[in-house]
Fold this protein.
Amino acid sequence: MPSKYYNRNFRPQKFYHIFNRGAYKHQIFKNSKDYQLFTSILSYYLKNPLGKYLSYFTHTKKPHSQIKPPTHPPTVHLVAYCLMPNHFHLLVKQLPKATKKTNISNLMRRSMITYAMEFQNKHKHTGAIFESRYKNVTVDTNKQLLYITKYIHQNPHKLVKKLTDYPYSSLPVYLKQSKPLDWLYPNYALKLTDNYSKYLKPPEEQSQTEKFSSLNLDK
């Protein structure tokens, strides 16, 4: 029986927690430019679902931040993210307009292939970058949705004194400590809390069925 984590039956208007880590638990982000590259690639495909594979990033003379993709209506919304040295977490929503060519599967395939190619070229790396296929879990309730954003943002707690000091997550946008991003949609979660300034308060105790995000990818 196939694992529930590999069920790719992504449905419109549903939220999904997606995660993956490096092969043999190795780092997939070795420096700040790696984090920036992954973010640039992900944001490109979020804003341009039909965009070409980005050898674009290696060969263009423009800085990644200045690459302007063709205008195309988004088909997947990114709700929250956190990039860790050896793994990543994404929370996404599939929109009704998504097709087989522009759905979450397409977004992940393009993003991971593009990043792997760039990483191999940059670091002279041979072999797989990621441990396996990415995993995904369906978010079924509003309570789960809010909880998983907090879970994602609290991942770097062992790396920094304050979570707000960690630069590779969507938390600063959630707390209005950085400018909004045109490819990030935090309001899906923030509208479920009374006060965004209290957003990082420990989530309520979850029932056993709702503790679906108990994986520790650092182990």
Remarks:
- Residues 203-219 have pLDDT under 50 and may be disordered.
- The CA atoms of residues 172 and 178 lie 5 Å apart.
- The chain is about 25% helix and 15% strand.
